Amino acid sequence: MSIAHQEIATPILIGDIGGTNARFAIVPDASGAMIDFPIVQTKDFATIDQAIAQAVLPVSPVKPKSAIIAMAGPVDGDEIKLTNCAWVIRPRTLIADLGFGDVVVLNDFEAQALAVVALGANHLEKIGGGEAEKDAARLVLGPGTGLGVAGLIHSAGRWIPVPGEGGHMDIGPRTPRDFQVFPHIEKLDGRISGEQILSGRGLVNLYRAVATADGVEPRYTQPSEITIAGLSRSDPVAVETLSLFATCLGRTAGDLALVFKSQGGVFLSGGIAQKILPALKDGAFREGFDDKAPHRAWMSEIPIHVITHPLAALEGLAAYARNQSSFGVETHGRRWRA
């Protein structure tokens, strides 16, 4: 039997590594409650190895035998670089230096996709649409340090996460107002990708573009400042920025829902979606999503939810760790053993 089809031994350290924050927990066994630890910032540790060795293992009540790490970026080779963080994950080093017998590395939005089937309705805030079709494909996306995207399909009795880098797709103007604003959006190598708008830095990018289009001096430099001013309606540039952000997020989510035919629902994850929930519910987001002629009627029936659980990705990884046979997680080329 290949290692890709062998059970990952418990206790299992699980980790959700983003561009800014790293979240860790331990799943002690197939039925035990998840043991979580304080969130750490990636900038405070030179490596993931150091973060685990200093912030997790000394305070853990059990010693993990294995690790399942979800990280923001594509998994490729023995040295895995994060897209928006200086950390490099080296599974063989984790095995040699920290004593793990088994290390699996996944994309962070695979973990978010797994969370969709692990969370209850009390951790979901609905934004329109009808009822989800049972076992139909689902879509997860979330603006954060970057823009994460993943699909989730059901086949042969198992949920199969489909990782991708959809946050780097092109995004362009559509309305007359868009054509006034978009020329002022900072480009990356000559193009505007989703992350240039639909992320924390993208929100600032968009705010500056709206201000420049109107000949106004920007007042804010931080995503949190723009969010507060936009939601309180104390600054008209920030108000329009949040509306445009919601519209562009809706359009992008709608495009991806068409790709996956996501009649099982669309799920928005991450801290930004939670923080701007009032802006997402004011109509611009849903209109951007639904406006996909000739499929508007069909799109309007797709339910959209904001995931409100603060540790959703860890809950997804924990569900997989406890019941690995229920999920079709491909580990070939992404699993290392001692």
Would you kindly provide a written description of the structure presented here, covering whatever features stand out?
The protein folds into 2 domains: about 5-115 and about 310-335, ATPase, nucleotide binding domain (Nucleotidyltransferase, domain 5, 2-Layer Sandwich), CATH 3.30.420.40; about 120-310, Hexokinase, domain 1, CATH 3.40.367.20. The chain has helices at about 50-55, 90-100, 110-115, 175-180, 200-215, 225-230, 235-260, 270-275, 275-280, 285-290, 295-300, 310-320, and strands spanning about 10-15, 20-25, 35, 40, 65-70, 80, 90, 100-105, 125, 140-145, 145-155, 160-165, 265-270, 305, 335. The longest helix has 25 residues, at about 235-260. About 35% of the residues lie in helices and about 20% in strands. The chain is an alpha/beta fold and about 350 residues long.
